[in-house]
Amino acid sequence: MQELPEFKAADLTRHTSDLFDAAIRSPIAITKHRKPKFVLMSMHQYQQLARGATQQAYMIDEMPEDLKALMIEGLERDLTKADD
After folding, report:
1. How many CA atoms lie within 13 A of 73 on its CB side?
2. What is the model's pLDDT at position 1?
3. How far apart are CA 16 and CA 20, in angstroms?
């Protein structure tokens, strides 16, 4: 099984946007007392998991609009951070 990025439960209130940003890219583990207790993931990832899908690949011109918007948002955010 794949190692998940981990965040402390306290980060849910202190660094909410960072957790959401990370969870858009891949599921993340929320730890309590240094042990993974919960998983946070995007709705799209959850729906794929619930349907039994493991991965999907798209050509950019065939990508669903919601995923394309998330991808562009993430790229813009990463480029903005790189400029800082």
Report:
1. 11
2. 52
3. 6
According to the model, what pLDDT value does residue 40 have? 92
Domain 1-53 CATH (choose: 3.30.70.580, 3.30.700.20, 3.40.50.620, 3.40.1620.10):
3.40.1620.10
Could you tell me the residue ranges of all domains in the chain?
Answer: 1-53, 55-84
Give the sheet arrangement for strand 35-40, strand by strand. Answer: 6-8, 28-32, 35-40
Amino acid making up residue 44: H
DSSP E strands, the chain: 6-8, 28-32, 35-40
The pTM score is 0.55
Q: What's the rounded Cα separation, in Å, for the pair 79 and 74?
A: 9
Of 80, 60, 57, nearest to 68 by C-alpha is 60
pLDDT the model gives residue 2: 62
